[in-house]
Specification:
It comes from Deinandra increscens subsp. villosa. By secondary structure, the chain is mainly alpha-helical. It contains 15 helices and two strands. 37% of the residues are buried.
């Protein structure tokens, strides 16, 4: 198999020595140092403020539905509705995501209720996702143990069949991967977010999975009944298309927070991995006008290290943490009104970042040049 180098790309010769920074080098600070730099009030969760964001998003979603139904015969309304509503589905996913982290409030029952309502509404099994996402945060940057957009080892990559490679590495197909991930996880991993006996879940968590799967099933039943009442065509326009836009948002954002940086970033295994080093491989992104709409999910580095911080404090917490992080924090490229600059990062990474070495405790993505139709001399 033709591969690229497993080491990070070299810098150009005309750069000054200060630019020669190895992101895989163990940082000279600890998690506690970053925590100490973040103001105390950034850790405070205000359930009323969190609920106000839920109310805001539900009002926007309801208004969009009303406008679409009222003007459904107008040719312009549906494309605008689909883009806006799909974005709002993504916004309520982020709020449910906060519930899963416990950053929504200090009340586990409130977190669970709100999380189930929001995630079931967009066909996400709340507890199944919550538990696997917890695994992702606890093992971020670890080749084998991470959970979200995990790099394939060369051995796993070579065993993929053609349809799986197509789905994973041909844009735009990876942007529709999330529903499949919920059902069968990523290549090389087994289990389902709907199966209480999946190896993702401990025996004492099975009841949670049953509850969430039941809520998901009730939502599917509600959609079926709604299709009988309003007709499948209108349901397709009002719900299915925005759902697909939401899936695209989710896959794009979650991918770009761990891939596609201008410089190759390391992945770890064995003794080289630590919670801090893994967390420092995450990437902040600027989404322009969407930053506030989807609750500042782009402030991802501090969120990954400290998922307990409410989303409305992440910008301030990140600003404070940068004094400690230094070069280990990669300032996101400023976006225009719409973050079209991220399309290049996304496409380039999906086309080039295929697998990592089967061996070594610090590894970088490599490219299968045959996959992109390029011969190596």
């Amino acid at each position: 198999m033709a591969v690229s180098s497993s080491s990070p790309p070299s810098k150009t010769a005309n750069l000054e020595p200060m630019s020669h920074f190895d992101p895989s080098a163990p940082p000279p600070f600890k998690v506690a140092d970053i925590r100490a730099a973040i103001p105390a009030h950034c850790w405070v969760k205000n359930p009323w403020r969190s609920l106000s964001y839920v109310l805001r998003d539900i009002l926007v979603i309801s208004s969009l539905v009303a406008i679409a139904v009222l003007f459904q015969t107008s040719s312009w309304v549906w494309p605008v509705y689909w883009a806006a509503q799909g974005t709002m589905f993504w916004a309520i996913f982020v709020l449910g995501h906060d519930c899963g982290h416990g950053s929504f409030s200090d009340n586990p029952n409130l977190n669970s209720i709100v999380g189930h309502v929001l995630h079931s509404a967009i066909l996400v099994p709340y507890h199944g996702w919550r538990i696997s996402h917890r695994t992702h945060h606890q093992n971020h940057g670890h080749v084998e143990n991470d959970e979200s957009w995990v790099p394939l080892t060369e051995k796993t990559y070579t065993r993929l069949d053609a349809p799986t490679k197509l789905l994973r590495f041909k844009v735009p197909l990876p942007l529709f991967a999330y529903p499949l991930y919920l059902w069968k996880r990523s290549p090389g991993k087994s289990g389902s977010h709907f199966n209480p006996y999946s190896d993702m879940f401990a025996p004492n968590e099975r009841g949670y999975i049953v509850t969430s799967t039941l809520c998901w099933t009730l939502m599917v039943a509600n959609l079926f009944c709604l299709s009988i009442v309003i007709g499948p065509t209108l349901l397709f326009k009002l719900y299915i298309v925005p759902y697909l836009i939401f899936v695209m948002w989710l896959d794009m954002v979650t991918y770009l927070h761990h891939h596609g940086h201008e410089d190759k970033l390391p992945w770890y295994r064995g003794k080289e991995w630590s919670y801090l080093r893994g967390g420092l491989t995450t990437v902040d992104r600027d989404y322009g006008i969407f930053n506030n709409i989807h609750h500042d999910i782009g402030t991802h580095v501090v969120h990954h290290l400290f998922p307990q911080i409410p989303h409305y404090h992440l910008i301030e917490a990140t600003r404070a943490a940068k004094s400690v992080l230094g070069k280990y924090y990669r300032e996101p490229k400023k976006s225009g009104l719409v973050p079209i600059h991220l399309i290049d990062n996304l496409v380039r990474s999906i086309n080039q970042d295929h697998y990592v070495s089967d061996t070594g405790d610090v590894v970088y993505y490599q490219t299968d040049y045959r996959m992109i139709g390029k011969k190596i001399e």
